[in-house]
Every structure is written in C-alpha cells, then in structure tokens.
Design a protein that fits this description.
mainly alpha, three-stranded mixed beta sheet
Length: about 325
C-alpha cells in the first residue's frame, strides 16, 4: 500500500495491520517514527522473522516500483489511495497546521490555519518539507514517487499518472470509502470482520463542511497548484468506477449492509465492558459472525494514529505491543 496522507490511509493501515498480526506476516516498518526511505535500508526493518523480503508494506514510504519488488515478495497486490484535492486540502490544512510544531513549521504566530488562509498565501501554499517536496502542493502525487522538480511540467505529470495507475491492483477512493473496502474484501476473499474500522477517526473535522470560495477552488485546481493531484484523482476515480462488480444488482446493497454492521460493531466496541458477546446474524453475503475482543482492541487502538504505527513496529521487532489480546 502507498500510504498517502489525508486519504484514509491510517484507517486502512489499522485494517491491514490487524490482518498482518493475526496471520503472522513479515512486514516492513520504520526504525523510527512513521516514515521510511526505501532507498535507505537503515531507515526500515523487516520482521518479525529474519528475512530479506517482507510479505507487505503499509507504512509511509514514497513508492518506487523497483525497490518494492526488491524488498517485497513476488505476488503482492498494490493498493493505492486518493482523495479529491478540494476535500484533501480541507483535511490537510487542519492536520498539518495544528499544535505548537506547526508554528515553527510554517513560521506562523497562530496554529490551526484554514484552507482559505493557506490558499490565499503562496508562502504557506508552497511551503517546502525537509525532503524538498511541499506540504500542500501536489501532496498526493509526492507519495507515489513523482519527481517534484518536474512540478511545472504538465506533460511529465500526465505521463507519470498514465504509467502509475495501471500498476494498482486495488484503488481506495476516499469519497467512496466503504464501497472501496467492500471491493477490497471481495478481492482478498475476506469477511466484514476483516474490514471493520473506527468510525470516529473518519468523521469530518469541524470546519471542513463549508464550501471553499469559487475563486480559491479555481486556484487550487489550476496547473500552477494542484491540477496534478486532480488528474491523479480523475484517473484513479475513472478506473475505480469501471470495475464490473459495481454494476451488479446487489453490490450497493452489500455496501449499505456493511455500513450498518460497522455502526453496530463500533457501538459494541465503544462500551466500557463487553460482557455479552456480539454475534452478527448471517446474511446473503456472509455467515454469522462472532465479534472477538481482538477487533474491539484494534478499533479502539485505531483512535490514535501513533498507537497503530507503534503496535505494528513493535510486532515487527518482536517487542510487546499495546496490551495485545489473546488471538
């Protein structure tokens, strides 16, 4: 998976992490923090077994097909995520500019900037990161390995997207998140138990519901700013909607059914104690499902991004990880 910031990737990370741990897969994880550099072996580890190739990679790492093939076993499925640039910058503005660190990062006196403030100030909009990419400019393309030095070359952007998207086996569209998860479940031959997730971390942040002024949307989607991310979104969105399963009579009924099940599981797992076991009745899409405490543990852990990353890193390093239940 290419873990793209502000696309629902942390939620998907939590889903995949519990599958990895339950099935004792070998995974690449950062030695420190949440990011790794695939071209620098000292920045990551593979575990829990002492092997040279992992079964999977789900942490932040700029995508490089050659290096992925080097460090991941053959037969992997590539998952890509994307979000419409307007929704993305609303989320990114809140996430990247919050707290004391943001004041130093963006040279600002007050944290918690709005997307309007960022889009109205080019010094903020094009503020560089330590890796010579930008916080808000082409913030999605960067994770797929696009060379930021070519940011003003629209032909290079189009060629990059045309080569990238066909490599993806599974696409997660943020504005069709539950439907994307149901598609993932089908392709992996999983059950709903494998894709339940914490609804609180995917709720819209306060202030993101308001529409941006039309002139700022035009600026955001211009070639100078994030047209590249819009072209990426359009290409991945078209590819996603071409999946024949979406035209099946009962696919969207299955999506609705999953949404309702997920609400039930979230209410159950958020209780202070679960003395009564939760059993979800059988349906046309699955047999009856008994919800184990393991699922509640991971759903609660998913409420803290750092905990989810640390849980997987500790697992990879053969260290204890956050009150793990008996599996």
């Amino acid at each position: 998976m290419t873990k793209v910031e502000r696309t629902g990737s942390s939620t998907l990370h939590s889903i995949l992490a519990r599958f990895i741990i339950r099935h004792q897969l070998n995974v690449m994880t950062p030695r420190r923090g949440g990011h790794m550099n695939l071209s620098s072996p000292n920045s990551f580890m593979i575990g829990p077994d002492d092997v040279s190739q992992a079964d999977t990679l789900i942490n932040h790492a700029v995508y490089n097909q050659t290096l992925v093939k080097k460090y991941i076993k053959p037969g992997y499925r590539y998952i890509g995520l994307v979000r419409h640039p307007v929704a993305w910058i609303k989320s990114a503005s809140i996430y990247f500019t919050r707290g004391q660190r943001a004041k130093k990062r963006f040279y600002i006196h007050e944290a918690n900037l709005t997307p309007e403030e960022i889009l109205s100030d080019d010094s903020l909009l094009f503020q560089m990161r330590s890796d010579k990419s930008s916080w808000f400019h082409l913030g999605q393309l960067r994770w797929y390995g696009f060379n930021y030095e070519h940011r003003n070359n629209l032909t290079a952007i189009k060629d990059f997207i045309a080569a990238l998207v066909p490599q993806m086996d599974i696409i997660i569209i943020n504005d069709q998140y539950d439907a994307s998860l149901v598609m993932l479940q089908r392709k992996f031959r999983w059950t709903p138990l494998d894709i339940f997730y914490n609804l609180t971390v995917t709720s819209p942040a306060p202030g993101t519901e308001k529409d941006l002024p039309a002139e700022l949307v035009d600026k955001l989607l211009s070639a100078k700013v994030n047209l590249g991310d819009k072209l990426l979104y359009d290409t991945m969105n078209r590819t996603w909607w071409r999946q024949p399963e979406l035209k099946e009579n009962n696919f969207w009924d299955e999506v609705f059914h999953f949404k309702e099940l997920n609400k039930v599981v979230n209410r159950y797992c958020c209780q202070n104690s679960q003395q009564v076991k939760l059993v979800l009745p059988a349906s046309q899409w699955h047999a009856s499902i008994e919800v184990p405490q393991e699922i509640c543990f991971y759903l609660r852990t998913a409420g803290g991004k750092g905990k989810t990353i640390a849980t997987l890193s500790n697992y990879s390093a053969n260290l204890p990880y956050f009150n793990q239940p008996e599996l």
